Amino acid sequence: MASVDHVRTAPSWRRVEIALIAGARKVAAAFDHRLTQIDLNLNQASLLAFVNDFGERSQTELAEMVGIGRASIGSMIDRLEARGLVARHPHPTDRRVWLVGITPDGTALVEKFYEIDAGFRREIRHDISREERQHLASLLERLDTNVDAILSSPNQPERGGPHA
Predict the structure, then answer these.
(1) Domain 2-151 classified CATH 3.30.200.20?
(2) What is the pLDDT of residues 4-32, one digit of tens each?
(3) Where are the alpha helices (DSSP H) in 36-103?
């Protein structure tokens, strides 16, 4: 019963889920901070890099890849297109769909993004061994699997009670 009491009395900031969310937000904010030098945020840079690496994609595919809604991705594409970083092209077989491709200016900016990304990774990984990073990645993958199971199941009480 001591572990149940610990869960109930532990401050919320000490719980792994809260620490994970807070840490992810801080990492994203730090990445955005580094990307101000090329006037992009992490979502925009991710979209550009994805299109650069994998070729033209539909707005729907890009929304899924970046993890934001289709309307939001449309606004993002509009801004990137206005800067000359991406261009829309009609789909060859579906007149309702536009494909988003990268421009030469976009490719040049992606190269700068990769340089910033490499430096950022060196900074954020400082004093954390490769073994520790691999262990963390393994734990995060297991958490991801558990979250997928929650999201794909009907809303049911968790197994083992509320504080298991």
Answers:
(1) no
(2) 555 566 666 568 888 889 999 999 999 99
(3) 42-54, 59-66, 70-82
